[in-house]
Amino acid sequence: MVEELERITEQQDRTATFELIQRLTDPGIGASERERIVYGLAQLADPRAVVPLAEIGRDLGRPTDVRQAALRVLEDSSLCPEGADLRAWWDTGDGLVRACVLRQATRSEADLLEPIARAPHHPLHRHALTGIEFTFEEPHWQQYKITGLAHPDPAVRRIAADVLCWDEPVAAESALHRAATDSATEVACAAIDTLRYYPSRATLRLLHEIAQGGGARAEAARAAEADLLVDFADEQSRIGHWLTPVADLLGPTEHDTAPSPTPPVRCRAKPPVPTAAEVFAVYSDLDGPWAEKLAALRGNDWSRVPASDRPVLTALLSGHPDPQVRDLCCSALASWHEVDALLSLAHDPEFGVRKSAVYSLRFVPPSQEIATLTWNLIASGKVASTGGYEALATCAAHTPPGELDDRLIDLARSDLRESIRAEAVSLLGEQVEPLLFLLSEPPLRTWAVHIRLLTACRDSGVTLPAATALYTVDNLHVAAALADL
């Protein structure tokens, strides 16, 4: 069974989907086998599995471990419901289902998340912390995560340490330092692993000290320190003075050496150009092995598909029942300038598809409709993080030069989503003078806005105002940006 499951997983062979679902519900299997089946089904990501798995997960008559396993497959394969359907799950009142809703919630469900994220003693609090790991980037959401590091339950503290990894809020660094010495080893290791993304001299020194010990903490610290040292070594020749307090942890400065001879470039085979008949034959069948099918979506040269084949392929791919197909086809649709199909996908029920469509709309001819769509998306507050700055970049691509500047300045000054603020600074280019006062302000979440402003000053020749406070900041990337000036 193990070897066969490995083959099914590697090939994403959906012929086995329903057999695996049946096996998942078998009360006679052990926890380790059920875990392997959960992983296998998640890798298959078969859209046909959604209905039966959802029924199993919500069936109060089934054992809890079976229900949890079914819900985990939906979560791990990004096939959970969204929007009104997700709220319908919440309305069941079932604690197991509600925990899943919190973990899968988007910004549209912030009203469900926030009361529980700010209530440390709520029984579902840890699930709310998991739910705000991505896209909830405003400062108050970060504070809920930071507060979680002091929770009396070590399981909650570990989750808090994990979810602080993606957003890297500056305000969390000292709390993560304390968590790195937590009495619970799993909490300490999670905090240490997250600290590899906090490039300060203080963090590097702390990791080095912990690495001198023994056990799991020291092993985690050695791995995290090694990662940070790569970043520090890359900047050693430029900001050696700033690195003096940790010079003993770094090797000698590497001087430039003659570049190695460039190996001859081998001619690569041109990516295949599928015909409409081939695409229909392959993608009309939801059964069978799908790993190669999905790889082909990424590897085919869609730009060379004959114009006569494109309308039927657009209809097939953009309306495909598998969200992975709809997601991956967006770049092809952009290369064909299939604007209507991309606009439709920008309202897809699946978040990843919407995000890809909005990103890909950047590469079609300028359109006021697209500019309006993406601006309204940003103004609605429904997007943040990667999806937020991609939407803003698409909006800028469809707006005449200079017409967006006043709105970009307003975003950079006052928006609470740092991804939006930082992208606004980059899009303004030389027009950043009204924003230079931000260099003397504390960071909203990270130093990204300050670094973008310093880069804009360097590139445009804008005179940098007195920003002496930045020279005292313990952050590798800030120091490097200042050195560039």
How would you sum up this structure, described in words?
With 485 residues, the protein is an all-alpha fold. The protein has helices at 2-11, 17-24, 31-44, 50-57, 64-76, 83-90, 95-104, 110-117, 125-131, 139-148, 154-167, 173-179, 185-195, 201-211, 215-234, 276-283, 291-299, 310-318, 323-328, 330-335, 339-345, 351-360, 368-380, 385-397, 405-414, 418-428, 448-460, 476-484. α24 (385-397) runs parallel beside α26 (418-428). The longest helix has 20 residues, at 215-234.
Compact summary:
With 485 residues, the chain is an all-alpha fold. It has helices at 2-11, 17-24, 31-44, 50-57, 64-76, 83-90, 95-104, 110-117, 125-131, 139-148, 154-167, 173-179, 185-195, 201-211, 215-234, 276-283, 291-299, 310-318, 323-328, 330-335, 339-345, 351-360, 368-380, 385-397, 405-414, 418-428, 448-460, 476-484.
H and E string:
HHHHHHHHHHHHHHHHHHHHHHHHHHHH
Q: How would a textbook summarize the main sheet?
A: none
Beta-strand residue fraction: under 5%
Oligomeric nature of the chains = single chain
What is the helical fraction, as a range of percent?
55-70%
Rg result:
25 Å
| Head-to-tail CA distance between termini | 61 Å
How many individual helices? 28
- Mean pLDDT over all positions: 94
Which stretches of 5+ consecutive residues score pLDDT under 50? Answer: none
The 3D shape can be described as: globular
Please count the beta strands (DSSP E, at least 2 residues each): 0
Helix/strand class: mainly alpha
